Structure formats: C-alpha cells, structure tokens
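CORE FACILITY INTAKE
Project code: CF-77B
Contact: R.S. (postdoc)
Sample description: multi-component assembly, two entities in total
Requested service: structural model of the whole complex
Turnaround: standard
Below are the sequence entries exactly as provided by the requester. Do not edit them.
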Amino acid sequence: MAERITPDWIGLDWGTSNLRGWALQGGQVRDTVQSCAGMGGLSRDGFEPALADMVAHWDVTPQTPILACGMVGSRQGWAEAPYRAVPCTPLEGTGAVAPTSDRFNLRILPGLRQTTPSDVMRGEETQIAGFLALNTDWDGVICLPGTHTKWVQISAGEVISFQTYMTGEMFALLSSQSVLRHSVSGDGWDDATFDFAVEEALGKPEKLAARLFAIRADDLLDGTSPAVGRARLSGLLIGAELAASKPYWLGTNIAIIGADAAAKPYARALQTQGAPATVTDAERMTLAGLTAAYRQIQDTL
Amino acid sequence: MAERITPDWIGLDWGTSNLRGWALQGGQVRDTVQSCAGMGGLSRDGFEPALADMVAHWDVTPQTPILACGMVGSRQGWAEAPYRAVPCTPLEGTGAVAPTSDRFNLRILPGLRQTTPSDVMRGEETQIAGFLALNTDWDGVICLPGTHTKWVQISAGEVISFQTYMTGEMFALLSSQSVLRHSVSGDGWDDATFDFAVEEALGKPEKLAARLFAIRADDLLDGTSPAVGRARLSGLLIGAELAASKPYWLGTNIAIIGADAAAKPYARALQTQGAPATVTDAERMTLAGLTAAYRQIQDTL
C-alpha cells in the first residue's frame, strides 16, 4: 500500500458541476482528485461529506488549511462568500469566508462584482490571479471561455472591468435542444465554415438572429453536413461575442485562459481578426491562483 | 345523444406539438377538436390512428375530403409534401400530396422554400393564404410570431421572400433551461422594462450577447424581480429580431398573424418604433387558408 499523503494544504476548485482537489506539500502537487460532487447537486449539508469523501485517502486534520474557489461560495453553496467590487485585485485572501465545520479548516475565496453594467464572477478571479502571479506586470485583456465566457480588462494588477457572455450555454442549448440539433449533431467540424461565420457575424452582428435558422434550412434543402452546421453555429455565436466585446480586445494584449476545446475556437477567431492571443491552461491557472491566495493568508490559518 | 355530424370536408392544422381539426358543412364550422397528437410524437404509422381517434365522433367516410397543413408534411411526417419555391402564391392546392391510406381521402398542402438565404416554412403559408383571401389586394409584410417567427414579404398575391427567426425557441430555452431561469421565472411582466429593452437592442443590436447575462447579475446584486427579468429577456430578443428584420418592416404595411400571447409583444415593440401593425388571429387565418385550398381543389377530390 502506498504511503498516505499528509498535505501541507489543500486547494479546491469547486464549481457547479465538478469538484477538483489538489494535495500540496512544500509547494508541490502530490495528488489530484476529481469528483462530480459539484455545487449544483449538493444541499447545504452535503458539502462537508462530499469534501470528506474526496480527502479520505489523504491524512487531513481539522487544522489542515483548505482553500476553495468557485460556485461553492454562491448563495446556493456551502457558505456565501461576498463579491468584491471592481476595480480591485483579483484575489484578497483575507476576504475569504469560513463555513461552519468541525472537520475542516476551510476558506472560500470571494468572487467579483461590477455595478454598471451588472456582472459577477466566481472562480475566474482565482484563474486571473494565477495568471498575474505567473506573468507579473502584465496589462491587457483576459478571455476565459466557458459556459459563461468572461472578458476581463487588467491594468496594474487590478481587474478594471469585465463582461460575461452566455455563448457557451447558448451553443449547448441550441445544439442539443433546439430545432438545430438535427443539423449540428456529432463532433464534426469544418474550419473554413467557422472562419466564414465568424467574419459574417463580426461584419453584420445585427443579423445573428436571422442567420441561425438558416443552418436548419440549409440542411433541409441541400443536405449540409452536421460538421458544417456545427462549425457555423459556433462561428456565428463566437463572432457575435467578438463583435460585442470588440472594445475589450481591439489593439491590446490578449490572453486566453481555458481548456483546449474551449480556447481553440476563440484563439482561431481572434487570429483571423489580426488579434493573436496567448493561450494558457485553465487548471494550471486555478492552481497558481489558489497558491497565491494561500501565500497571502497562510499565517492566519 | 346529439346528432352525429357528417362533414362535407375536414380541415387539419397538424403541427409538431398539436393537431387541430375542423368539421365543416356548407362553409360553416360545425365542430372543432384539438389533440396533442402532434407530428413530433408520432412514428410514420401513427398518423392514421391519430386521425381516426380525432374524427371518431363524426361520420367520416373514405371519400370525405380532408385537407392538412403543417409539419405533418415534413420528412418526419406522414408523407413528405415538397416545398414550393418563392416567389409564388402562398398556396397551390393541386401541389398537395396524398399519403397512402385506406381510410382517409387526405391531401397535405406543400410548404414554401427560399434558396438565398436558405429558408423554409410549413403551415404559415396556409395562414398567409387565409389572410390574403380575407384581405384581397393587400401588399406589405406579414409577421407570424411563434417558436420560429417568420417575416414574409407579400406583393400582388405572392410571397416574394421570407426570413425565419428562432426568437420564440430561444426565449423558451433561455427562460427555462439556462442560468437565467432563476431570474425570469413565473408569468410576471413589466411593460416599461420591455419597451426599454427593445429600444436598447434596436439601438445597439451587436450588444445582445453582452446583455443577456446582466439579467442574472441584476438579480444577484439587486434582487431584480422575475417580472422585470422576463420582460427584459423578451425585449432584448424581440428587439434584436426587429433590428435584423428592419429592411422587411420599415415603411410598409404590417400585419401580424398570431395568438394573443405571441402577437402582443411584437405589436407593442413595432408600435414603439412608429410602425403600427394590424393583428389578426392565427387560428382564423389557418381555417380561411384551408378553406381557400379546399375551394381550389374540391372538384379533384
């Protein structure tokens, strides 16, 4: 039997659908565990048992520091961690909240909010903090693609403003539940179609609503392949997002924080607009952000 | 026991979700029946029994003429009725197809298709024919709000072009299945919010993608009521549709064919743009269209 790990501290990325935990010793990741015990499937008293399950094969005491980011800190989560108002640094470890627990020494990191226009984030602030910890003195715009893609303006280590786009959720709903599902099924893809659709949506974004149904009509009348339909739907939605977010990304540094599948279409679309982006891995940024937060508050834990 | 009705002919509006039938005698509706045996829930051999159920309490012989419009004529329907290419009159009864049936003398009316941009309709052509039968020499644009709203350009009794918008389906998906569902639940409504959202979307349609998530954020940060969220979502989506369809409706006659709940927001939004529309009832137009088709082909049945 392998030696049991005694972590110095534990980092948690606790989102709506998933929970990921890292056991860390002396700045090194010793083990990573993923579970599907996301916030969305847990009642208030389900969080402590879910965490106990996750850390069961590590030596964890009630004193072991645990830092969590993400939807676990929402109103429906374990304990509500208030949003901090931008402009501000992406992370302030001392603003973290501790849910009631006899078994765990846990802090949940706060999210960010913006008043005008109204916007919120939970979890992305930690990835941004990780990116800035690894890229000091970096100014520009960070795009975090996902279910709710964020565009975030960074200056002098602070989040100045941000904007959320429901592009990922709309793609998921339209491709799996609307009439378009018949015409975009499968995993197929066509780069040229994607590029053309991005260009079309950026050129005439007001026409988006008129173009979606044509994906179905093209299929019915011409038997267009699902790969073409899928790339076209993605290109139209991402193109519309780029049209709306143009004031963010035009003429500035751009970094994308995301998993490959989410980041690639964004990087490609920006490239076609003469706006190259640096792509970095979301999980790595989350861990770097949690580590930065741990360094800030380890003396108080 | 009431006398059994012996219809001269039967009209059917057979859509994806519902089936509605009228028993007609000498130009008068004697009975109306509605069932949930829509095309979407039936396999190819389920159509004949569904129709038999519907007409069971009428005296129907294998010779009784039956005319149907709608998705029953799609590839997944009882028998595929080809699309007729615009520009053309909305109805050509002699283009109707007869599915194989020993029990029923049925014809399914064809839909319409457009090549550039690709578009199709099934069922709306019958409502348009009904409207034109009741409003002879009418030129202008007809809006048919619904799951897939159509804007249709009419001149000299012909459909010149048309465009489909997935606004109704997007409202349904976003309001019931996206993160916005928490912030737009119930039946509440706020007219002033709707008007403002229409104006905002028409003024800057390229910003639609950026504005949807703010409905959720407004709720989280300010506790905005679901009635306001619901009216805002509807206003943004209809405003974006009006922005895209502006070349259709600007400076021309506008008629709306729809049920009250679907037609009212469109009429209101157009009114705020100085574009008043005549609102007519969808069911009445369907029956008028089926009647016009019956007159065209009754000698051949």
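Facility notes:
- Chain A has a mean pLDDT of 95.
- The radius of gyration of chain A is 21 Å.
Invoice: internal transfer
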